[in-house]
Specification:
Shape: globular
Radius of gyration: 25 Å
Number of strands: 15
Number of helices: 11
Largest sheet: 6 strands, mixed
Order of helices and strands: HHHHHHHHHHEEEEEHEEEEEEEEEE
Mean pLDDT: 75
Strand content: 15-25%
Distance between the termini: 44 Å
Length: 405
């Protein structure tokens, strides 16, 4: 089993609540607890080596204190899994928890992934020691760090890796002809992409494990989601990438989409009849200003034409830094490419409601008004790498018997 998959895998196999009961030492689940700890021990053997490799490639070398504390904590966790009696098990778990806290404190500020890995262990040790009350704080820090690692890494999972490689490669006569220099850029860029791939995989696994633990503790996270990593074309053949990897979050059932610290809540699509001319100059100015902001230029008039409107709320558990560019688009959209036109034979929608989830902000509302097209599938696009899609297509019945897809 690969590093950082044991928790999510066993939660999917037995259920999140059973996982928590096993971790907290329920006697009836001793067999499951042994299986879980055994999987954890086996899956962690490559983790430190993998973290060190990522650090070398991305110039985020592991601090010696971090490496020592993380390794010692893992050994203490192994000892706890084989402890002959409860008192020695509790002592080893307490020692492991302290060591992982020390690792989190020593983690490089440049590498949120290091922080997330250490906090994941703090949460596991707290659970195993019978301290579920201490777990939410560790999971909050884990989510913040893993989400930051993911959003920082994804833009490099594409053409920007080669731009970074070009900037890092010194101009030297030893490289010879221009063709040789381009070969070296391809090689360095490919190495960067591989390192970023590892970061993305680990960050996604951390977020999945955090969700499994939180659900097992009874936190209301809304419906479960389907999370996919879309690899850019050419990646499997080790070609130079022309597009960027994306993470797509889709609903398994209608409801708010939860991913790490973010929640995307799609509002109801509402048909809006045409509004008469406002009775006063003041209200006319208000309507005109709103239309100018929300509608295509050809509809910027003093009275709203008939159409539809929808509002989407994007929330974060903590203030986001750096800022995220968030846009709301009708239809199913990946980046700037429309994958499915909402009405066969009709052009894709134009116009985007957008905003910024800035530092020290924790929510943003995106209203969208369109005068003559009806659709109830929507896409929230964050930095062109995180894609949240609304629930599956449903038939919308409008007044007067008109039916639109």
């Amino acid at each position: 089993m690969e590093p950082l998959t044991a928790i999510a895998t066993i939660a999917a196999k037995y259920g999140a609540s059973q996982l928590i009961r096993a971790l907290t030492g329920n006697d009836e689940l001793s067999g499951l607890a042994s299986e879980l700890l055994g999987e954890l021990v086996a899956s962690e053997d490559r983790l430190s080596e993998q973290m060190a490799g990522i650090g070398r490639q991305l110039d985020e070398l592991l601090d010696q204190r971090y490496t020592v504390a993380l390794g010692a904590g893992q050994r203490a966790l192994r000892d706890a899994s084989t402890a002959p009696e409860p008192r020695s098990r509790a002592a080893e778990l307490a020692r492991a928890r302290d060591l992982f806290r020390e690792a989190a404190a020593a983690a490089s500020a440049k590498s949120p992934l290091q922080i997330a890995v250490a906090e994941r262990y703090v949460a596991l040790c707290s659970l195993s020691a019978g301290r579920p009350d201490a777990v939410p704080a560790a999971l909050d820090t884990l989510n913040e760090a893993a989400f930051r690692a993911l959003t920082e890494a994804l833009p490099l999972f594409g053409p920007k890796a080669y731009e970074k490689a070009r900037a890092q490669l010194p101009r030297s006569s030893r490289l010879g002809l221009r063709g040789r220099r381009e070969e070296r850029i391809d090689e360095l860029g490919s190495d960067l992409v591989d390192a970023v791939d590892d970061v993305v995989d680990l960050a996604l696994n951390l977020l999945a494990e955090s969700e499994a633990l939180a659900r097992g503790l009874g936190q209301d996270l809304g419906p479960e989601t389907d999370v996919d990593l879309l690899l850019p074309a050419g990646y499997e053949d080790d070609e130079r990438l022309a597009s960027t990897a994306q993470v797509v979050v889709r609903p398994i059932e209608p409801g708010p989409l939860r991913f790490g610290p973010l929640t995307v809540d799609f509002g109801d699509l509402r048909p809006v009849p045409g509004q008469p001319q406002p009775p006063s100059a003041a209200s006319a100015a208000v309507v005109a200003a709103k239309l100018a902001h929300d509608s295509p230029p050809e509809y910027a008039a003093t009275a709203r034409p008939p159409g539809f409107e929808v509002e989407v709320l994007v929330r974060s558990d903590f203030p986001v830094s750096p800022s995220l560019i968030v846009s709301l688009r009708p239809g199913l959209v990946l980046a700037d490419e429309v994958l499915l036109e909402v009405m066969p034979g009709q052009p894709a929608f134009t116009g985007v409601a957008s905003g910024m989830l800035a530092a020290r902000m924790q929510e943003i509302r995106l209203p969208y008004f369109h005068p003559d097209r009806f659709v109830n599938e929507w896409t929230v696009n964050i930095n062109n790498v995180l894609i949240f899609q609304s629930s599956d297509r449903q038939l919308l019945e409008l007044e007067g018997g008109a039916r639109f897809l």
